[in-house]
Amino acid sequence: MLSRSRCVSRAFSRSLSAFQKGHCPLGRRSLPGVSLCQGPGYPDSRKIAINNSSVFSIRFFRTTAVCKDDVITVKTPAFAESVTEGDVRWEKAVGDTVAEDEVVCEIETDKTSVQVPSPANGIIEALLVPDGGKVEGGTPLFTLRKTGAAPPKATPAEAPAAAPPKAEPVAAAVPPPSAASIPTQMPPVPSPSQPPASKPVSAVKPTAAAPVAEPGAGKGLRLEHREKMNRMRQRIAQRLKEAQNTCAMLTTFNEIDMSNIQEMRARHKDAFLKKHNLKLGFMSAFVKASAFALQEQPIVNAVIDDATKEVVYRDYIDISVAVATPRGLVVPVIRNVETMNYADIERTISELGEKARKNELAIEDMDGGTFTISNGGVFGSLFGTPIINPPQSAILGMHAIFDRPVAVGGKVEVRPMMFVALTYDHRLIDGREAVTFLRKIKAAVEDPRVLLLDL
């Protein structure tokens, strides 16, 4: 023990003398965890006297949370109650540098897509789920090694900015050869005694015809390819088939004269835009008319509870508006329509439509709904029978507006007309209620004063 203490004493003395004389190349790093006491001590330190001459303070280092969390595991966010799993589609790969809140992957569920951002700046070390794999809430997705700074995004942006000046001289250099080739071909044409002049022309024709021949050659081929159905499309197919198997669907039709609503829109659209900063469309008129008709015919707003064999009447009116997206049909909900005016409805439709186009609809935006409106007229549909959106009991189908000859006051006039269709569950709604409901919508759209007079 005595020999060991002497060795330790000599080592500390040599290190101290070397440090004081400046001969230690590593400085303080020659003795990691050991520092000379020249100031206030550290909370976790002890003073050691060696040879009764030098006093050292040995600091005890602790692993901080930053070091422990240097590599973190990102998990799948919790889904809504009605969603149990989803499919992963990766936006980043292993080794990619990501910034905080940058989307790493997208989880496609039955109703919508959930984006998973990076919680911090870092580098992706591993992807724990394959592309297209199924995950549940809380499933580990990927591991991220934290870095102090965000990835440099300015340098790639500057590179394209510097590229156009270099591309301009190249583009400017291309026209002179083409312009020079034209006069070289033209002089040999008048001289029939020169056969070499015809060879370059014949040589140019096959090169120009080659790109045209490639598509032509593929016309006779019978090709096909397969793509996996996304989860949203699978869910849509499942729900529509369930509606056919469960509901006794029946459709009734009517036509609406759009003259008055078009005249009202043309007269007040500028003032409406100036006051509310919104465009006045036709959808708000149909949503408000549907809310009015649902209050008059509450059975259309009701639903059958198959578990208890009861009819559930709703005193509130939440209207789902079908919106077509590249991934499938989504139905965001306008809630408490009975308390809204035209401006409120147009504002809500605009906000939901913007979120749908940006793929930012949350599951909460589509949950619920007591009645659905589907506008196939935006695509030019003349006539169609919509399918009920379960568990609802009815759906209204709008179509395109076309000028048609109609009888008005014993005379034939050309009016802008729209066919409308109401598909309803005949288990709950009888034909009388369905026809009366659709006529209420027709009356409120053709003459909006019916809403003010509560007729």
TrEMBL record:
It is found in: Mitochondrion matrix; Nucleus. Pfam families: 2-oxoacid_dh, Biotin_lipoyl. It catalyses: N(6)-[(R)-dihydrolipoyl]-L-lysyl-[protein] + succinyl-CoA = N(6)-[(R)-S(8)-succinyldihydrolipoyl]-L-lysyl-[protein] + CoA. InterPro entries: 2-oxoA_DH_lipoyl-BS (IPR003016), 2-oxoacid_dehydrogenase (IPR050537), 2-oxoacid_DH_actylTfrase (IPR001078), Biotin_lipoyl (IPR000089), CAT-like_dom_sf (IPR023213), Single_hybrid_motif (IPR011053), SucB (IPR006255). One of its GO terms (biological process) is tricarboxylic acid cycle. Residues 146-217 are annotated as: Disordered. Its EC number is 2.3.1.61. It is an enzyme of class 2 (transferase). Belongs to the 2-oxoacid dehydrogenase family. The 2-oxoglutarate dehydrogenase complex is composed of OGDH (2-oxoglutarate dehydrogenase; E1), DLST (dihydrolipoamide succinyltransferase; E2), DLD (dihydrolipoamide dehydrogenase; E3) and the assembly factor KGD4. It contains multiple copies of the three enzymatic components (E1, E2 and E3). In the nucleus, the 2-oxoglutarate dehydrogenase complex associates with KAT2A. Interacts with ABHD11; this interaction maintains the functional lipoylation of the 2-oxoglutarate dehydrogenase complex. This is Dihydrolipoyllysine-residue succinyltransferase component of 2-oxoglutarate dehydrogenase complex, mitochondrial.
